[in-house]
Amino acid sequence: MKENNPATGHLAAFVTIFVWGTTFISTKILLKTFTPVEILFLRFMLGYLVLWLVKPHFLRPGQKGQEKYFIAAGLCGVTLYYLLENVALMYTQASNVGVVISVAPFFTAIFSRLFLHGGRPSRRFYFGFVLAICGIFLISFSSEQALQLNPLGDVLALLAAVVWAVYAVITRKISEFGYHTVQTTRRTFFYGLIFMIPAVVLMDFRVTPDQLLDGSNLGNILFLGLGASAVCFVTWNLAVRKLGSVRTSVYIYLVPVITTVTSVIVLHEKITAAAAGGIGLTLAGLFLSESGHRVKKQI
Prior knowledge:
Blueprint: H1 7-20, H2 23-30, H3 36-54, H4 67-91, H5 94-101, H6 104-115, H7 123-140, H8 151-175, H9 181-202, H10 209-213, H11 215-243, H12 245-249, H13 254-266, H14 273-291
Helix pairs in contact: 1-11, 2-11, 3-4, 3-9, 3-11, 4-8, 4-9, 5-7, 5-8, 6-8, 7-14, 8-11, 9-11, 13-14
Protein name: DMT family transporter
Main location: membrane
Membrane topology: Multi-pass membrane protein
């Protein structure tokens, strides 16, 4: 498909977010047996190996200075983001983390403007952002559980959002190098795993064959490693190449929507009126942010 046709990018972004919005089920099941760091290392190691099987060719950067972008992408998009998110969940509610991380598109727009010298999103983009955040807030706090501020956890979640925005901008820069998306994703995973080693050592990584061969554990690790990591990081990077970092990032608004709908279908949870209203606001915000992204060039 032609580069100027965004249909592939929108499809790739939606597929990515749809899968990422359902990963909470697998992660919740695996947390009964594994620690967050163990899950993180296993899923990205599996994803890395699968990407080698898909395209077993070395990536040799053609210009000096390109390697630093892959290193930064691995550090931000794989290691720091997921570690910050997981640690944040230890100190604050999941609903808090969901709301705070959803501000990532806002930071992406700022960083893209500053470092990629792209055009300025219109007012509709920012109005859509506010609308989506209001909707996400309603979805996250639609139950009887009241909002509780937990400074440490909430700050860590905010840092995770900033780190993801940095990753989105770096990914956009990498897409300009012209390499195959599978190869660039695999190289990002490689550096992410390297930076993960200190956390693995410090946090007492212990995974036994019996744990891995358990049917439930194996199935969920395969889903996270193959689907949420290998496939989805490739489709996300493809979307960034087609749409730009900002337009792709606004799809993050859909994560709590998909999570809520999945909970109704899979876990048979009831959807409240507030959550239904929140879904409507979030979808409206997504539409406005996408349609309001009138810039001189993709960022």
